[in-house]
Amino acid sequence: MSEFIILIQGDAQRWESMSEADRAEIDAAHRTFRQRAGEAILASGELQGPRTAVTLRRGADGEPIAVDGPFTEAKEVVGGFYVIDVPDREAAVALASLLAEARHDHSGVQVQPLVDHSAEQRAEAEAREASAPVAG
């Protein structure tokens, strides 16, 4: 199995002014997605609007500084996500195509595999266990 992130992108102003019918269509598609994906969904969420975001960037002294907003020049922003565990890219794309945002003219859905760091994480955990003092 492979893990993928599905990023739901769109025009925040269009989302904010969306009709009830459009919102209902999107919500119905997400219900269908969740039913079909089932336990393959590892995490999901809808993000609050971009005005609530904070971006950390390197400041003049090399330390991070916080800047309000998503700090991007793009009109589209990420509005939500799913992390799924499916057999392959084709399965991830098939599920993502169920989302209404893939059909709207003001949004899109990006599917991207996650890097598998499980071997490194297991090695780090084993190293911590090996160096832990023995109670006695």
Summarize the structure in words:
This protein is α+β, with helices and mostly antiparallel strands and 136 residues long. Helix content is 33%, strand content 32%. It is built from 4 helices and 6 strands. Strands 2-5-1-6 form a 4-stranded antiparallel β-sheet. A hairpin with a 5-residue loop joins strand 3 and strand 4 (64-68). The radius of gyration is 19 Å and the shape is flat. It starts with a strand and ends in a 5-residue tail after the last helix. The mean pLDDT is 90.
Largest sheet report: 4 strands, antiparallel
Helix content: 25-40%
State the low-pLDDT regions, or none.
none
The overall average pLDDT, rounded, is 90
Indicate the overall shape: flat
Distance between the termini: 42 Å
